[in-house]
Amino acid sequence: MKKNTLVILVFLFIGSISAQQRQTIYITTKLPIKFKTYIDDELQLYVECAQIKILNVPKGEKKLKVRVMTPSDQQSSITIGKSSDKDEYYRIEKVGETYVIKANPEGAKEDKTYYSRASYIPKPKTTIKDTSLKSNQTCHLTDSALNKIIIDISSIKDVKARKNLAQNLFKAKCLYTHQIKSIGYRIDDDEQRFALYQILFLPALDRNKFSDLTNSFQSQLYANKFMNWFNDQKY
Predict the structure, then answer these.
(1) Nearest to residue 182, comparing CAs of 83, 54, 75, 60?
(2) What CA–CA distance (Å, rounded) separates 171 from 181?
(3) pLDDT digits over 119-165, tens only?
(4) Of 13, 81, 94, 154, whose CB count within 10 A is highest?
């Protein structure tokens, strides 16, 4: 019992430090448009929306870009992360015929009920291919390949079929923890989220970082269940 309590306290302490180093980015518009959002040229949500809330963005300057989904297909950029604030707010406006994204000082007062939710997806690190490896096959999915699979799965309307396809596809793949968290944020049910994490644990490329998934659960009950399960794993 004392061991479990210590583990919980350690995770809570680590979680509080991590939260202090991250921001939430809010983007909205009063225009009758929808947009897609990129941070450092990495797509953050696979569907277009009119309001978006991006969680867990590491503090530090980054380029935020929005692509306005109109026939003009315009793009506008701004540097984010200049402040030490927990939350930063931005708004898309139209100046003449040009769509621009600006800081939104009044954003904290606005209704956030209908904001789409996303979790920060980092730009993939450039890797140098080891030419000494003869095998041309790998179980690892790149972020772009993972994004395509998620889009394909999301297009399936039947919930059971979507769940079965996801489990069959991902159990044969080895992913990094940040990729698994990206999948988990797109599951609404904590029980299903926990089940998927258990499937993806053994083939994960960085199982020692699996504790990072704890804060993806909506309820403390499943966060605790996950921590207890993870503590029992051998990696």
Answers:
(1) 54
(2) 15
(3) 898 887 665 554 444 444 567 777 777 777 777 776 677 767 766 76
(4) 81
222: left (phi over 0), alpha (psi -120 to 50) or beta: alpha
Cα→Cα distances 179→40, 115, 121, Å: 17, 22, 8
Confidence of residue 108 (pLDDT cuts 50, 70, 90): very high
Distance from C-alpha of 212 to C-alpha of 234, rounded to nearest angstrom: 16
- Closest by alpha carbon to 102, among 31, 40, 46? 31
Measure the CA–CA gap between 58 and 63, rounded to whole angstroms.
12
User: Measured between alpha carbons, how far is 189 from 187 in angstroms, rounded to an integer?
Assistant: 6
- In whole angstroms, give the CA distance from residue 51 to residue 117: 9
CB atoms within 10 A of CB 16: 9
pTM of the model: 0.50
3-state percent helix, strand, coil for the chain, nearest multiple of 5: 40, 25, 35
Judged on CB neighbours under 10 Å (0-12, 13-18, 19+), 168 is exposed
Q: What is the rounded CA–CA span in Å between residue 28 and residue 60? A: 21
List, in order, residues 6 or more apart from 204 with CB less than 8 Å away. Answer: 174, 175, 176, 177, 180, 210
